[in-house]
Amino acid sequence: MYKTEPIYFDHYSLELQKKRAQVREVIKQLKQKSNKANCIYPAQLKMFTASGEKTNPTLMDALLELRELGIQVRVDEREQMEKELSKYRWSNTAGRRGKDLAVLTGTDVGAFFSGAE
Q1: For residue 97, how many other CB atoms are within 10 A of its CB?
Q2: Average pLDDT of 70-96?
Q3: pTM to 2 decimals?
Q4: How many angstroms separate the CA atoms of 44 and 35, rounded?
């Protein structure tokens, strides 16, 4: 405490803070429509509905339900792409230095999308 005021330290990474802000925005909209919801660590959406409670690890997992409720969701494009690619067993190779991975170079990716050989 400092001069009778509590001091709070936010030890979340910038990325996690952004995800929690997105979840809080959705919770605000849910509460305006008289639905109960919470944000649980790290940035999961816990919704209480007539059929029971459900915890969604990401907003992407709750997207269909939220749209049915008329809730607008701002989803990170990168997260959406990673989720879509993971369905087909693609993964992010960040942090795997030193591993012998078959990864396309920037030139290869450019050629792939432009159709050039």
Answers
A1: 7
A2: 73
A3: 0.61
A4: 16
Question: DSSP state, 18?
Answer: H
Rounded CA gap, 2 and 48, in Å? 38
Both tokens of 60, joined, read 């992407």
Spell out the residues 6+ positions from residue 111 whose beta carbon is closer than 8 angstroms to its own.
117
DSSP state of 99: S
- Write the DSSP assignment of 21-89 as a string of letters: HHHHHHHHHHHHTT-EEEEETTTEEEEEETTEEEEESSHHHHHHHHHHTT------HHHHHHHHHHTTT
Q: Which residue has the higher pLDDT, 79 or 59?
A: 59
- Phi/psi at 80 (5° precision): -65, -45
